[in-house]
Fold this sequence. Notes:
It is a single chain. The chain contains seven helices and seven strands. The protein is of the alpha/beta class. It has one domain: Rossmann fold (3-Layer(aba) Sandwich). A seven-stranded mixed β-sheet has the order 3-2-1-4-5-7-6, sandwiched between helices. Helix 2 (27-34) packs across helix 3. The longest helix has 15 residues, at 125-139. The radius of gyration is 15 Å and the shape is globular. Mean pLDDT is 87; it is low at 4-9 and 11-15.
Amino acid sequence: xxxxxxxxxxxxxxxxxxxxxxxxxxxxxxxxxxxxxxxxxxxxxxxxxxxxxxxxxxxxxxxxxxxxxxxxxxxxxxxxxxxxxxxxxxxxxxxxxxxxxxxxxxxxxxxxxxxxxxxxxxxxxxxxxxxxxxxxxxxxxxxxxxxxxxxxxxxxxxxxxxxxxxxxxxxxxxxxxxxxxxxxxxxxx
Length: 189
């Protein structure tokens, strides 16, 4: 665990706008995020920006079966660690802005929920759309895209993306303190 935190911090020092925080998410945040997912919904649980697996552990503790979980991590060193620590979970080394292609390649047609730790507030509106649209299209009615942020406002450009969202949780026992936003398709979905 200590070596994972050191790796995470060193990657943050190298690329602070691509690694969202200085340290992995706390178990408090992971439990809060996992508690917002309805595992009775059909489909896979998609985790974006899995890092060292803090949220992954929370999802597993909440009862998410490993075979329903797909995790995407852009940093190869972090993805390798995820594969070692979670050999029964599908781990994809890839860029979340290419999710549409990933879904087609892997035959993913239905999502139960999306859990994101991406530093998405720093993404361009075009890249935000590339992440959010393919997910919302596979979540279906009632599906939610859950996004962690340390911002005080929505990290996603809701009006430009045509989506609805609200802050659904504050987690003070995390470094830095975080908010969890839940997004769904706009009117008509």
